TrEMBL record:
Species, as recorded: Rhizobium sullae
Designated name of the protein: Putative DCC family thiol-disulfide oxidoreductase YuxK
A Pfam entry, by short name: DCC1-like
Signal peptide annotation: none
Domain of life: Bacteria
UniProt-listed InterPro entries: DCC1-like, DCC_oxidoreductase
UniProt-recorded Gene Ontology molecular function terms: protein-disulfide reductase activity
Amino acid sequence: MNRNDYSYRRDAAVPAFPDDKPLIIFDSECVFCSGWVKFALKHDRAQRFCFLAAQSALGAALYRHYGLDERDYETNILIEDGRPHFKSEGSIRMIAGLDFPWSLARILYILPRPFADRLYELIARNRLKIAGRRTTCYVPSPEERSRFLA
């Protein structure tokens, strides 16, 4: 798995994309994941984050680039300053990047990474049982559209 900063820029299989803002790649068919995106849109008043459906061509290319299955989304991906973050690390960084009081989530870094990742994996494995699957991908509103790639 290539985790070097901006490694996707050197991968011919990954289309060029604007990477000047942190990018959250999510399973847009998962109700839980789409709900997280709606939450982030509401609480990211500074419009710090951009979003990308994993089901898009670019999303699939990035999953493959990082050695992940582009059909079984075991983790959201946060790409920030060209560096990928997965599982608990990515989720904590996403929440901590939101406006106050969500930025206080930085306190979650005190959790040992193996424990936090196991908790993340438990939720990720059961997310469709917990919240279900959408029959169509999440579609942003016209006001939100500028925050989404592809």
